[in-house]
């Protein structure tokens, strides 16, 4: 079994979901009392959020790169960044380490292509939806992402930070997300990327006829494959 380092805390809510999903899958595969060998470096999310708000992505990347280097020094075999938005600084992290980096866009794009889809709705933070890093990364992998209008993006973003990141699950917010998905379906979306690791706390596959691509779940599955070397 390999040891995986997790850059977490962005938010703690999503990091918990990664931890549980990875350990449950490893136990299901190996049986008994088996669990995953994990090292978690959990950042102060407030510090990262401040970098996001001020547009200081260089500093955010430096913070995460330092945490990644610390994880590598503990002897981990690979590193996973347990968040979508901060993959904007993935290159800084990758350049700071010598062990493999498990990129979230690889597992998401692979699963979408397995279902023979090419055009999907993308929900996430405002940074993920409006910045080019995520959509361009998908395009490089053969996937076209469509996003809501700016006002809708802002409300999706607000719900993530003010509610989901602090454990609030409200029915009116769920209804807003599902209405947004309906609107994007009318624009040709064939599936939906839950492009923020907290969104799966609010909506799930049972809520829509379109296939959902829960990035936290897919990333966790990628982590399990790495840990079990399969």
TrEMBL record:
One of its GO terms (molecular function) is amino-acid racemase activity. It comes from the Bacteria. SUPFAM superfamilies: Aspartate/glutamate racemase (SSF53681). Keywords: Isomerase. The keyword Isomerase applies. Pfam families: Asp_Glu_race. Belongs to the aspartate/glutamate racemases family. This is RacX protein.
